[in-house]
Amino acid sequence: QVQLVESGGGLVQAGGSLRLSCAASGGTFSSYAMGWFRQAPGKEREFVAAISRSGIMTTYADSVKGRFTISRDNAKNTVYLQMNSLKPEDTAVYYCATTYAYPSRRRTDFGSWGQGTQVTVSS
User: Fold this and answer.
1) pLDDT at position 64, please?
2) Burial 18-49 (b: 16+ CB within 10 A, else e)
3) What are the φ/ψ torsions at residue 109 (nearest 5 degrees)?
């Protein structure tokens, strides 16, 4: 069973940037695609971005396209989410997760999940 640990969250002003990291252990990182989801208070957990096993292919939610970039370093067993031009509506707990079903965006197609990292964007 793979374990995932997110980091890099924090408080940032609108228009600012953050880079989230998700470190994986206990599995063969390059054998699965990765995704990021987020959950705001009182809302459903929603898809943000996903990346293929090799890192060549990516897909994004419309709400973050052009502002967020997902990437991965298979040598470091880590996936990243670079978030630029942040908006207050990006405030949420961000989770990384594994999937064998790229480019699925369905939460149920993602298996292992991290504990999440809080991102707060002030206006």
Assistant:
1) 98
2) bebbbbbeeeebeebbbbbbbeeeeeebebbb
3) -90, 0
What Rg, from alpha-carbon coordinates, does the chain have? 13
Cα–Cα distance for residue pair 37/45, rounded to 1 Å: 6
How far is Cα 21 from Cα 8, in angstroms, rounded to an integer? 6
Instruction: Output the DSSP codes for 34-67.
Output: EEEEEE-TTS--EEEEEE-SSSS-EEE-TTTTTT
pLDDT in tens, 49-108: 999 999 999 999 999 999 999 999 999 999 999 999 999 999 999 999 999 999 999 999
Helix (H, G, I), strand (E, B) or coil at 12: strand
Question: Which amino acid, residue 54?
Answer: S
User: What's the CA gap between 11 and 61, in Å, rounded?
Assistant: 22
Q: What angle do CA 102, 98, 46 make, to 5 degrees?
A: 75
3-state secondary structure (DSSP) of residue 107: helix
Give the model's pLDDT for residue 27.
Answer: 87
